[in-house]
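Here is one record:
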Amino acid sequence: MVIQNMKKPQGQTITAEIYCQQLDRVAEALTEKRPHRQQHLYLHDNARPHTARLTQRKLGQLGWTVLKHPPYSPDLAPTDYKAFRSLQNWLNGKNFATEEELRKLIQDWIASKPAGFWVKGIVDLPRRWAKVIEYEGDYFPDD
């Protein structure tokens, strides 16, 4: 699902207040696009805006179940181990004249990925969690 208008003004720091506003927009989009769903699982990392009391209260108000995330573990963030790695490989060697050109090409790349590409990142989470536990939080090779 693509959430529109999630862009922050360039150079603006994401605070807990701004993050909560983004969560409200996500909640609105979920209600609009998936009104039949009653429960939502949410995974984010431990960045300060994500762990702030204000954010915790907002997540409680939304009634979302937040999945626990170790302090630093890109092995558990589907965007880090799945999407960003693939995007990085695709971007290697490319040059862009403008930020707008880069944005357009990234949007095209996202649209070119089949739904299964995104689903696999989520489906792989339980296996990756088990690996993090097995390796006691240390780096582990990708299968």
Notes: Residues 1-5 have pLDDT under 50 and may be disordered. The first strand starts at residue 41 and ends at 42. The two ends are 27 Å apart (CA to CA). The chain has two domains: 16-66, 74-134.
